[in-house]
Sequence to fold (273 residues):
Amino acid sequence: MHTMWKGSISFGLVTIPIKLFAATENKDIKMRQLHKEDHSPIKYEKKCTACEETLEQKDIVKAYEYEPNKFVELEKDELEALAKEQTKSIEIMDFVHLSEVDPIYFDRSYFIGPGENGAKPYSLLKTAMEESGKIGIAKVMIRSKQHLAVVRVYDKGLLLETIHFPDEVRNIDLVPEIPEEIDLNEKELKMAVQLIEQLTTEFDPENYKDDYREALMEAIQSKVKGEQIKVAKQRPKADVVDLMDALQASIDDTKPKKKKKKTTTRKKKASSE
Fold:
């Protein structure tokens, strides 16, 4: 696995050399864009909007647009100097319970591996966090961006998950027309709870797969072989308008199927028995 970050993690005066590895990978199927006439791939050029000159990377600087069409330039040296102020160290500032962090904050996951001579303090932190049942809150600089993060035990190792800063999470009050107080029909509510209970199971990620990605890859493979794409017909959904009828139909549809009793024929006992 490719090491994507090297540094240290510290709590109190204890410092642990560590490495970070991406814990997840994007499985999206990437499509290329082609010229419709000759099916050649399209390439994008960076052009100046004023003189329309095609630019190379050395001709480009970074700037922040503080007002429409007004920019303040930031030199590469200035950006690097700011980044260097953020050390290659993950300092755990606080320990909290995982249940206190709402999932809306979670962003990306990275496995934490021990660096050189870091095995013992790595195991110490992992075991101490296991026994306390708590996670660490830390800050880390990855790819020129500072992230808030949690450090927690995962399986046999440690995991770092970057989380959003509070000002990066939008307020739900911005969502229009969310009902606040509506009188609900008791029977409908009871049926909705029953439906949830019928659909309740233990979470096993292996039970879920990307149906669209599988179907898309199958269609691509068929086209590569010169075959026609076959799309399975979907079962038509019942057009149920009434909420009560929809709940009842859903409950009926999700009821566990009764197993058919097996019909067995008893063997005649041998006369010698």
Remarks:
- The helical segments are 76-85, 119-132, 186-199, 211-224, 243-254.
